[in-house]
């Protein structure tokens, strides 16, 4: 190899056999084949990812850490926005019609559950625990033929809610939505059919909170998940398989409208009406389940002027009252799992047996029993 210098460039020559010289091809020509192969590989990977993305069910956009502390996710279908967090804007109050409801002095002595006909038989021992351990409470298992009448009766001044209810035909969405409707309209206690009660309801709220007339307890919330040390996106989760409230509380009103806006979001992204929305499990948790409920709880606290962060609920060993919401330690509604083997996290009030197969596409059927 030797170099010859010209005024414009340095040209490399290879000394060939028999003394001939050949000028080498420029680098871009020598590497063109390799570059083409690499570009082809990159293009193939990109195309594969695009196909997988398109085929993946459209999930609700997960908010950022700060947004999770009570701020709703939104999406503006009219503006033609996509489902990205940056462009999403959901009109959470588009169907909102204020309704003043007086908060009662006492919690209604009512227990509500829903189940299929088969479920009532399969979970008989569990639902009977609620009735037997709370004999002074009205116990009601709602049946299918009363649901429409219930919504019509209690939400006659809110046609948007009535229309939305009639459009829902996915069991998990109807079940979640129904519990918020019932709690807002009637109050009392709701619990999934695959739960059993361990401690009578009248013992759930410590006497020191009941005796303080200046700081009333209007809602009772249990903790389901405590992962503040694991870097989770939503480090604390609140239980929604067991709910306790006085009727007309803003928490459940907000939950109702948040469910509506979330499902309308999915309908907009999927470009289908509400009654044709396909709901993956992850979306059910975020749109109508504990993810949504946790966000709404934090939102209500902030609106009440309560400054909160996730660490406030971590390692809770005694009930705390924030605003008018009483938060119970993780053992209370999360018995037989979570930290129920650690007595420092409080007594067990409710056991959730996780046997109901909550994510089902089968039509709901209801049976009813109401006793006093």
TrEMBL record:
GO terms for cellular component: mannan polymerase complex. Pfam families: Gly_transf_sug (PF04488). One of its GO terms (biological process) is protein N-linked glycosylation. GO terms for molecular function: alpha-1,6-mannosyltransferase activity. InterPro entries: GlycoTrfase_DXD_sugar-bd_CS, Nucleotide-diphossugar_trans, Och1-like. Belongs to the glycosyltransferase 32 family. This is Initiation-specific alpha-1,6-mannosyltransferase. It comes from Exophiala mesophila (Black yeast-like fungus).
């Amino acid at each position: 190899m030797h170099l010859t210098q010209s005024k414009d460039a340095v040209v490399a020559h290879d000394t060939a056999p028999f003394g001939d010289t050949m000028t080498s091809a420029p680098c871009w020509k020598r590497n063109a084949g390799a570059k083409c192969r690499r570009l082809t590989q990159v293009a193939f990977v990109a195309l594969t990812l695009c196909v997988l993305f398109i085929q993946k069910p459209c999930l609700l956009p997960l908010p950022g850490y700060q947004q999770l502390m009570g701020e709703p996710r939104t999406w503006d279908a009219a503006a033609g926005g996509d489902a990205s967090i940056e462009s999403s804007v959901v009109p959470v109050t588009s169907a909102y019609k204020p309704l003043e409801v007086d908060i009662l002095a006492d919690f209604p002595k009512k227990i509500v559950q829903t189940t299929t006909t088969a479920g009532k038989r399969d979970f008989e021992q569990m639902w009977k625990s609620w009735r037997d351990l709370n004999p002074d409470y009205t116990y009601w298992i709602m049946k299918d033929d009363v649901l429409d009448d219930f919504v019509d009766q209690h939400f006659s001044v809110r046609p948007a809610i009535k229309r939305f209810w009639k459009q829902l035909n996915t069991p998990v969405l109807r079940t979640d939505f129904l519990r918020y409707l019932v709690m807002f309209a009637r109050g009392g206690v709701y619990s999934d059919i695959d739960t059993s009660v361990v401690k009578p309801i009248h013992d759930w709220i410590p006497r020191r909170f009941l005796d303080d007339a200046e700081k009333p307890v209007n809602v009772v919330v249990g903790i389901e998940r405590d992962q503040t040390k694991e870097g989770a996106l939503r480090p604390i989760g609140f239980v929604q398989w067991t709910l306790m409230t006085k009727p007309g509380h803003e928490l459940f009103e907000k939950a109702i409208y948040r469910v509506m806006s979330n499902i309308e979001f999915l309908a907009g992204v999927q470009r289908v009406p509400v009654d044709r929305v396909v709901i993956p499990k992850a979306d059910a948790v975020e749109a109508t389940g504990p993810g949504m409920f946790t966000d709404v709880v934090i939102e209500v606290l902030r609106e009440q002027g309560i400054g909160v962060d996730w660490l406030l609920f971590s390692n809770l060993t005694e009930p705390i009252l924030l605003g008018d919401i009483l938060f119970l330690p993780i053992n209370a509604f999360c018995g037989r799992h979570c930290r129920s083997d650690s007595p420092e996290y409080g007594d067990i009030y409710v056991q959730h047996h996780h046997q109901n197969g909550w994510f089902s596409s089968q039509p709901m059927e209801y049976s009813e029993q109401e006793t006093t």
